[in-house]
Write a structure and sequence with these properties.
Layout: E1 2-7, H1 14-27, E2 29-35, H2 38-45, E3 51-55, H3 61-69, E4 73-76, H4 83-92, E5 96-99, H5 105-108, H6 111-116, E6 120-122, H7 131-145, E7 149-161, H8 178-183, E8 189-193, E9 196-200, H9 202-205, E10 211-214, E11 218-224, H10 230-234, E12 242-249, H11 251-262, E13 272-273, H12 279-283, H13 296-304, H14 311-318, E14 331-332, H15 334-345, E15 354-366, E16 369-380, H16 388-405, E17 413-415, H17 420-430, E18 438-441
Parallel strand pairs: 1-2, 1-4, 2-3, 4-5, 5-6, 6-17, 7-12
Antiparallel strand pairs: 7-15, 8-9, 10-11, 11-12, 13-14, 15-16, 16-18
Helix pairs in contact: 1-16, 7-17, 11-14, 16-17
Length: 442
Amino acid sequence: MKNILLFGAGKSATSLIDYLLANAPRQKWHITVADHDLMLIKSKTGKSYYATPAAIDIKDQAARQQLIQETDLVISLLPPHLHITVAKDCLQFHKNLLTASYIDPEVRKLEKDIEKAGLLFMYEMGLDPGIDHMSAMKLIHSIEKKGGQIFSFKSYCGGLISPESLDNPWQYKISWNARNVVMAGASGAIYREKGKTREVAYEQLFDHNKTIQVPGLGKLAYYPNRDSLGYMESYKLENIATFMRATLRFPDFCEGWNALIKLGLTGENGKIQTDHLTCFDWATRHIEGVDKQAGHEEVMARFLNVSSKSKVIRQLKFLGLLNGDQINLGEKTDAEVLQHLVEDKLKMEPSDKDMIVMMHEIEFERRNMATRMHSYMITQGEDNVRTAMAKTVGLPLGILAKLLLQEKITLTGLRIPVMPEIYNPVLKELEEFDIRFEESFE
C-alpha cells in the first residue's frame, strides 16, 4: 500500500480527491486528507474505504509531522504562506512534495538541500500556474524543433462563469479562494512589450481597454499578471521582444473593479472599526465632503464621473455598497470587508457552472515567414462543487502523483512543470477529462 497525504480540503481539492479515490483500488493507495474542518473533509471523501480524514491544526507541529512521517507523498493545497511549513517537514522526513502554488522566496532557500536529498518538490502544478506552463512549453518546444524563431509570447488564463450562469452586473462569481480574487493584481505588473520593459501600477491595471477575441466567447478583457519577466528564463525565451502572462475577465468586471480601487476599498493598510458602520459610509470614507443629503447613487456617480444610471453604479449597488446596512465585523481592513461582501453577493449558486479559459498567442518566424498561432482551451464545470477550477487545479496534481508513485518520473530538485517528461503524460491524460487545446495558425 502507498500512502498519499493531502493538506487542504477546500474548493480546489474536490476533483483531486475524486481522482485519487478513483485510482486508489487499482493503484493500491490510501489517502489521508488533513484539514482543520472535519465536516468539510468528510463531504469530499464520503465513506470511502481508501480515505482517512485527519482534522488537524496545521500549526500543530507534532500532529503535522506524524502525518508526514507516515506517508509516501505529500500534496499541499494549503494557503500559499503555509506551504513552507510543510516543505521544511518534507525535507526533514525525506518526502516528495507537490503543490499548485507559486515558488516563493522561502522555498528557494531550500533549493540546494532539496537537490542534495534527491527529492522532487514540484511547485506550480495546478492550472495557472501549471497547465499554462505545460501547454506553453509543449508549443514552444514544437516550434523550436521545426526551426521556428519565436519573437512574441502572450499567455492568458481566467477562471470565469459560464455564459448561462451570468446573472449579475459583475459578470463574475467566486469559483475559488475569494481572498485571492480581492488581492489579485495588488502588487501591479511587469512584462515586456516590443523590446521594452513595461510596469503597470495597481491603480492602472484594470483599465478596461485591453481585450482579446476568444473563439465561441467573443471579447474578453485582460490585465497583465504580477511578474511575467521571471518566466522568460524558465521558458528559455530570455531574448524575445514581447513576453506577457495575463488574467482574463469579462469586460464589465474590470470596469467595476477599477471603481473599487478608485474608492480605496481594496487596501490592506490599517484596520477600521466596522461595528455600526454602514456599507455606504464605509464605501465613501475616502470621498471628501460627502453631501449626506444627496442620493447615494448621486454621490458615487459624481465621484466616479459616471452617470447615476450607469453599469458601474448598478455593480456597486449589487455589492450592497449603496445601502444603509451595518457591516458589524469588528476591526477589519478594507480588503477584508470587501472579501466578506464579495463572498456573500458573488457566490456561486448550486446550479451555477464556472468556466476556465486559457489561450496562448505565439508569433514566430520560420523560413522567412511570420506566423501567429493561437492555442486555446475552454473547460466547463459541472456545478458549484465540481467546478472547472477544481478540475484544472486538482487533476494535474493527481496525475503527477500517480506517475511518481508508479516510479515513471525520476526528476529531483525544486521544479516547475516545463519539461517533456512531465508535460507529455500529464497533458495526454488531461484530455480524458475534456481538458484539451485547439490550435489555429495565421
